[in-house]
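input
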Amino acid sequence: DRDLLKQAILNLLVNAQDAVIAKAGGEKVILVDSASDRKDVQVTVRDSGPGISAEDGRNLFKLFYSSKRGGTGLGLPIAQKIVDSHGGNIDWKNRAEGGAEFTVYLPSLRE
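output
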């Protein structure tokens, strides 16, 4: 479902935007990249925000968990549910140069 997948990516972009806005000083960057091969399609969202703490990392995809003031804790769980329902998964990591990176993997339609 194209619209649901757009919503999942939009949720990642909104989180990246919130992260760079929350960062004190420095360059504020969000990068989106995509790639594909015979196995899967990947969409990666990178930000130059403060990164994700270990505690937040353990709870990122838990419903109603949010480290953001006023956050609902729905964005990432909804994104994960959408991606899961399409046979994919979401991975994340903190970037060595700072910020976070989320990659959505979806099965390729190529044969």
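quick obs: The chain has a mean pLDDT of 90.
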